[in-house]
C-alpha cells in the first residue's frame, strides 16, 4: 500500500497552455523632427515607413506588409501593425532612418505588443483639444 493512497493511484493532472504565436505585432511610434519642417500627412507618413524599410532591407523589406492603423499629425504619433516575423526588420529600419525631406528626423518606438489593446490608451499622454 502507498502512503496516503491506501492502494489507490494518485491522479496526476498536467496543465497545458497551448498558445499560438501572435500573427501580428503592434508598435506605437512617434516621429521626431528636431529641425522643424513640414509635418507629414498620413500618406506621407506611410511612405516614410516604406522608405525606411527599403533603405535598410531593399525591395524585399519595402514589400513587408505594414499597416498604419492610426496616425495623429498633431503629435506625429502612430500605431503600426506588422506581421510578427517582420517586427525586427521594421523596428531596425525605423530606428536607423535619419532624414525626412532632407531634414533630420528620428522614429521613437514607444511601445510594442502582440496585443493591440495594450497600446490603445495611456491616460497620461492624452492630448485634449
TrEMBL record:
Q: Name one GO cellular component term.
A: multimeric ribonuclease P complex
Which keywords does this chain's UniProt record carry?
tRNA processing
Q: Where are the transmembrane segments?
A: none
**Which GO-annotated molecular functions does the record name?**
ribonuclease P RNA binding
Q: Which GO terms describe its biological process?
A: tRNA 5'-leader removal
Concerning InterPro entries, the annotation shows: Pop5/Rpp14/Rnp2-like, Rnp2-like_sf
Its family remark reads: Belongs to the eukaryotic/archaeal RNase P protein component 2 family.
Q: What is this protein called?
A: RPP14 protein
The organism of origin for this protein:
Cettia cetti
Upper lineage is: Eukaryota, Metazoa, Chordata, Craniata, Vertebrata
Amino acid at each position: 500500500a502507498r502512503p496516503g493512497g491506501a492502494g489507490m493511484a494518485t491522479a496526476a493532472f498536467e496543465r497545458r497552455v497551448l498558445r499560438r504565436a501572435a500573427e501580428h505585432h503592434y508598435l506605437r511610434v512617434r516621429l521626431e523632427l528636431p529641425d522643424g519642417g513640414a509635418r507629414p500627412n498620413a500618406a506621407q507618413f506611410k511612405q516614410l515607413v516604406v522608405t525606411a524599410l527599403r533603405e535598410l532591407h531593399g525591395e524585399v523589406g519595402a514589400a513587408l506588409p505594414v499597416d498604419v492603423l492610426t496616425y495623429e499629425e498633431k503629435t506625429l504619433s502612430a500605431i503600426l501593425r506588422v506581421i510578427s516575423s517582420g517586427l525586427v526588420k521594421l523596428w531596425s529600419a525605423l530606428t536607423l532612418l535619419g532624414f525626412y525631406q532632407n531634414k533630420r528626423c528620428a522614429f521613437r518606438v514607444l511601445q510594442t505588443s502582440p496585443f493591440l489593446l495594450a497600446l490603445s490608451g495611456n491616460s497620461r499622454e492624452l492630448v485634449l483639444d
